[in-house]
Every structure is written in C-alpha cells, then in structure tokens.
Amino acid sequence: MALTLLKRLAGAALILLGVAAVTFLLLYGLPADPAAMIAGRSATAASIAAVRHQLGLDLPLPEQFWRYLAGLAHGDLGRSYIQRTAVGTLIAARLPATLVLMVCGIGVEVALGLTLGVLAAVRRDRALDRAVMTLSFVGVSAPQFIVALLLLYVFAAQLGWLPMSGYGTPAHAVLPALTLGLLGAGWYARMVRSAMVDVLDRDYVRTARAKGLSAGRVVLRHALPNALLPIVAMIGIDVGQFMGGVVVVEAVYGWPGIGQLAFQAIQQVDVPIIMGVTLVSALAVVLGNLLADLAAPLLDPRIRAR
Amino acid sequence: MHPSLRTATAAAALALAFAAPPVRAEEPGQGGTAHQGGTVVVTYKDDIATLDPAVGYDWQNWSMINSLFSRLMDYRPGTAELVPSLADGYDVSPDGKTYTFRLHPGVKFTNGREIVAGDVKYSIERAVNPKTQGPGAGFFHSIVGADKMTDGSAQMMPGIEAVDDHTVRFHLVQPDATFLNVLALDFASAVPKEAVDAANGDFGKHPVGSGAFMLKDWTIGQKLTFARNPDYFKARPNLDGFTVEIGQEPLVNILRLQKGEIDIAGDGIPPAEYLKMKNDPAMAGTIVDRGQLETSYITINTTLKPFDDLRVRQALNMAINKERIIRIINGRATPATQVLPPLMPGYDKDYAGYPYDVAKAKALLKEAGVPDGFTTTLYAMNADPNPRIAQAIQQDLAAVGIKAEIKAEAQAQVIEAGGTKASAPLIWSGGMGWIADFPDPSDFYGPILGCGGATQGGWNWTWLCDKGYEAEATKADAMSEPSQKDARYAVWRGLFTKIMTESAPWVPVFNERRVVAKSKRMGGPDEIYIDPTEVIDYPSIFIKG
C-alpha cells in the first residue's frame, strides 16, 4: 500500500513537471511580447529592452525555465506582469472561494444525482424514469451560461430570494452551486441509474428480496453500495475540474475563484498567473484521482484484496 | 534665475478652452446640491490591476489612483483646465526650459509624514526608472537626464532638483508646451519612499498617498474599500468613502443598479442592451453618455505593398461605410473624419474627411495599378464587438475588390503584430484605440503617427515617419508661451489635416462615446462621471441631499 502510494506520488510529480514544461513552452511561443505590453504606449526601444532585462526575458529559454523551476521549488510562482503581486498570493486569496464552490457543487450534484438515479433505476421504464432521464438530458446539455442567467433572473432579480452575485454568505453560494450541480447531477443520475440497473438484476439482490427484506433496505443497503464505485471515481475527477475554476459560473455570479483569475490573465496574456493556475489545477486533478483511488478499497473490499 | 514671466496666476490663462463649463465639487451642479457624506458602491467586472501610480494605466484604476494621490498639477473637475494642486504656484523661465514649483506647505502623506520636494523628485524618477517597469516613463522625456534613466545607465535625473524642502525645479532639454499636462498625469503622483520600500515590490496593493481618499481594505478578487482622507489639504471630498466591487458581469450590475444595490456600474451598459435601456423610462436619469477624447481607426502599414501607394490608402478611406459600423455598436459613436476627436483642441471643423464613395475608391485602385484588388490581412482584438466590426470592414473592402483575411487575437498579440515592422498590413484599433492621456493634440501624434512610435514595440502601426511632419510637430511643441496657445493649436490642426490629405495612413472610423450607469440618488453633472481627463471624478461625485 505504502509502495503504491509512493509510486503514485512520484508519478504525480512527473506529471506536474510535464505540465509545467508544456505550458511554459506554449506560453513562450505566443506571439505577444510582455515587455512591450508592460512598457506601455509611450515606450521606446530602450525602455522595452530595459523591461525585458528586468523580467529575465532576454535569457535563453532553458535558463528561463530553470529559473522558474528553481522558484517553484521554493514555492515561488513568480509575480503577475500586470498586477505585480506574487502569483502565490493571488491564488491563495482566491482558493477558499473555489474550494467552497467545489464542495457545494459536488454536494448538490451527488445528492441530486444519487436520488434521481436510484429512483429512475427502481422505476425503470416507467414514467418517473423517463422524466428523470429527460431532465438529466436537459441538465447535461443546457449551456451553463444560460442556466446561470436563468436562475439568476428568476430567483434573484424577479423573486429576490437570493443575492444576485458576490460571495460571503451561504445564500451567495446557493445559485452557483445549483448551476454547477444541475449539470453534474445529470451525469450522476445517468451513471447511477445504469449502475443500479445492472446491480438490481444480480442474483444476490434477488436473494435479498427473496429473504423478504423491505424494498428500501434492498436498494439502499445491498444494491447502492455496489453501484457507488464509478461515482467515487467521478467525484475525484470533479475535484480536479472544479479546482481549475469553473469559469462560466464564476463569471456570471461574480464568484472570486481561481477560474475568474485565469480568465482575466488569459485576456491580458499575464503569463505567470496562467502558469500558476495551470499548475494548481493540474495538481488538483492528480490529487483528486489519487484520492478516488485511495477511497475505492475502503468502499469495495474486493479491490482491497487485490 | 530670472524673475518669472509667468506665475501661478497665469495658470488660468494657460487653461485650455474647453466645451464643458467648469464644475467645482463645492458648487451645486445641475444634478442637485452637493451633499456631504455617505458611501457609494461602484462595480467593475475585471480586477483592479494595481493602485501604484507609476504602473496603473487603464480606465478603471486611473480615476482611483487620481483620488488616492496628489500631483503638482491637476485639472479642475469635469474640465480640461489645468490648475496647480500640490504646488501653490510655479514660475517658468523666459526660455521655457526651467519650471520652479513651490509646494503647498504642510501636506501630509496618510502615514503622517509631510511631503517635501525630495518626494516629488523621487516619485518621478521612480516612474521613469526601468526597474519600476512602468508604462509612463516616456512622458517625462523632456526632463534632462530622462534618457539615461530610461535606458538604465543612470539612477537619478539631474533635471529634477529639490532646491529646498518646499521648492522643486525641473530643467528641460527643450521647451515643452505639454509639460504641465505631463505633471498632471497619475504617473507624476507623489509617493513616500518608505512606503514603497515597505511594500516590497507590491506598492500597487498597499498604496500610501496624500489624495482625497485612502485605501482602507483590499480583499483580492472581491472588493476595495476607500475612505475619506481626514487630513486632505484641499476641500474635502463629498463622499465619506466608496467601495469598488469587482468580478460581476456588467449585465448583472445593471440589474443590481435597478434594484438599488449599487450606485455606479463602471462598465456601463452592455452594447446589446444599450438601446433597450436608453429607451426604458425606468432608466431615465441613470445613463451618462458622453463623448471622450477618443478615435477608433484602421491603421494602414505604409511600408507594405500596395499600401505604400497613397492612392490605395485613399481608396481604403473611401471604401469604409462608417455609418454601418456605428450601427454595430448601437449608435454609441459619431463618424470620424480625421485623427483628432471633436472635443480635442486643434480639431479641424472645416475638414470633412474622405467621403464614402465606392466608385471613386475603385477608380483610385485602378489608377494605382491594382484594378482587380488584392489580398491582405486585417488584425483586430478578439473581444466583442471588434470581430464583428472587422467583418463589416472586410465586407466593405470586398466591395472594392480587396480580400482581407481577419486575424482576431488577444490584445497583446495584436499590439505585438502592429509594433513589428512589415508585419500587420491593416489593424482595426477597437479596444486598443487611442484615448488621449491629456487634452492636447500632440498626444495623437508622437506615439501613434510620429517617428518615435515607429519602432519595434511602438504604437505607430502605420510605420509612417515623415521628416517634414516631425519638424512641424517639434515646432508646435516648442510654442510653450501661453500667448502662443492658439497659434500652436493652429499648427497642429494644419499638420493633422495634412497627414490625412497627403498621407492618409489611417481610416478614422468613429469617435466612441463612453457610457456609465448611475443610481438615481447620485448627484452632480454628467461631466464628473465621465471626465475628460479621468473616468469618474471620485472626489467630486456626491449623493443628493
């Protein structure tokens, strides 16, 4: 177990190094000169050259990358070209908002998805099943931007039950989490349904029914745990995805997370921020998958035995 | 030092004649009586990049920085009229090359220390120093020693002299009619060295100034809280403070404005909603819609074939349907005939520009030897509405036989292409267009049409560099006597008209108006919400009493 963990961690470090190298190369290759942008409209060739030197952009590429890695080793992600603030500070300031949104979003999608998926599987091929599947289809395919604006318009602008946008109180989190959750719930409902349908046909479930157990007990105690495995893996993936920031939702609701930071940085070609956010989300994806893998044996003794 | 010919009392004479009447914060404006007190909420979608006056250079932070710091010169609120600010007065030597300022005594930074002449010297040197990586260095080029400072070979500028604690003197390389405008730029704001050092490279998030307001709190990605500076040396600002909330969509902010949650939607109204809201009685009195010192244009790279032929550039000028392009942005602009916007001194009222005439354009192309047109590339910024405008330009060009491929890219990439010689044939300037740094016509020449800007990384994307034009521009800028003001504007007027008739390196397309939405409780005239030299004049705005 410990060996597996070590191997996975080493793999994760390699993946991060690879992501850093690829991102660095891609951003370096962009036909945009940060020095000229910083030096502004009144710049002269001399002032642009001076800025380029200040930023170390006149060094050969391998040396620039080496310097970046050396900084990284000390937890230094560099400074934003535009804001001049340390990238680590900017990301750290926005991390809590992203974490809150991630936890709430996953909570909504799991709660909704599991409930609807189980109901649909139990009532397979009946009206409820079809209604749930249609709903989840709509949830999966509706553009998040539209869903977000629709929820905002109805619940905040018209009914006034919830704040329009911003961050700080639980009420602020409801609409963003719901927007995220509706999309995810669609996926989860479909997955849970197919997994449950599969499990409900198994012999042991028939045996449980034959023993005279109540329908609820059969579904919740015997069938559901066996259908959960793919869901846990999916939550792991979601952790990674959401940590990268959910750009659309964060933009519409003015949610001060990492996605918003990345979005602005891309607009401004603020390379150090783009690098930093990419690395943080890569780290989250790796960690999310790792956590899902670690959790699997706890849920399924068969994996533990292997 | 000769006794001065000009003194502070001459400041009014030097003031630029401007369309808008002067409005002072203390005076009752047309929007109700100036009322003291209260706090307001302002919103923007994008983060405030920095509040460091040597670095900040966008239309969001410019006004905030302006209200946090003091400078030797300032503009009377709502106007382009220069007035001494941190200085009580100034003298100019007869040759126009030496300016001596007397500091207002007893002005304190918000850290409690009194401002001395050395602070002014330090602050401007810091703005020019390449270590600061500030975008404003080039503005101070006429001060002795600025060139050596800019290229990093000197650590101070002998042209700025702290004579004693309350006197600062500037020595210029040559007379510069815009020097007082330069000293009114945010880049010339006084900052305390100890606070800059203490901020450890991040003064932009920990600003210490001596302006009307001070920064109380900055929650990154969420909001900035400004409070009245209790020790401010001038008439106190009207508001007790203001909060800037960031990160929310412009459309959401308009909804919040209608609900009374916020007071100023800094991003204005999204173009798609503009007409609807403008005609909505519920929005009456909330939309401020004013011209600004801006021109949006297509640059034509004069070094590339076939654009090196004047007739081709003139044909382009006649091929573009400006009215149709303005419809794309819902009429929020007026067609431009020339380089200068109508509000700028030196604008030529008698010059009508090139007419929209497809037949004539085709004839000119035939004359130039490209009767069947040619293929070329049009660069544009990738943010709405610029790609749509580029498409309209593309269609107009197609009508005269020119096939233009559109390259819609991020701002920095377009700027890079424009600033690289022989790289971008045509660029639509929208989103990067020229808004004047100060209300003087020279600002529309040097960086964007002069030889100085025609350099790698520069902003003269036409790569036009005409020795005759340079000589006239130099002549105009040497006319620094107040009595020469009108003559100087006349020189600029003639030069800009000549550039269009004899070189036509641009297609001036439109002069865009700025739109800000404010709640009904906000008082004061429109010009303090869209000020000619800053966007929102924070010290002047007020809540109606």
What does this structure look like?
The complex is a heterodimer of chains A (about 300) and B (about 550). Chain A is mainly alpha-helical and about 300 residues long. Chain A has 15 helices and no strands. Chain A has helices at about 1-30, 35-40, 45-55, 60-75, 85-120, 125-140, 145-160, 170-200, 205-210, 215-225, 230-245, 245-250, 260-265, 270-300, 300-305. The radius of gyration of chain A is 24 Å and the shape is globular. Chain B has helices spanning about 10-15, 60-70, 115-130, 145-150, 180-185, 195-200, 250-260, 270-280, 310-320, 320-330, 360-365, 385-400, 410-420, 445-450, 465-480, 485-505; strands spanning about 40-45, 75, 80-85, 85-90, 100-105, 160-165, 165-170, 215-220, 225-230, 240-245, 265, 285-290, 295-300, 335, 375-380, 405-410, 425-430, 435, 505-520, 520-525, 540-545. In chain B, about 25% of the residues lie in helices and about 20% in strands. Chain B folds into two domains: about 5-210 and about 515-545, Periplasmic binding protein-like II (D-Maltodextrin-Binding Protein, domain 2), CATH 3.40.190.10; about 295-510, Dipeptide-binding Protein, Domain 3 (Dipeptide-binding Protein, domain 3). In chain B, the strands form four sheets. In chain B, strands 1, 8, 9, 10, 11, 12, 13, 14, 15, 16, 17, 18 and 19 form a 13-stranded mixed beta sheet that branches. In chain B, strands 4-5-7-6 form a four-stranded antiparallel beta sheet, covered by helices on one side. A two-stranded antiparallel sheet of chain B has the order 2-3. Chain B contains 16 helices and 21 strands. The model of chain B is unreliable at about 1-30 (pLDDT under 50). The chains are: A mainly alpha (about 300), B alpha+beta (about 550). Chains A and B meet through helix 2, helix 3, helix 5, helix 7 and helix 12 of A and helix 7 and helix 13 of B.
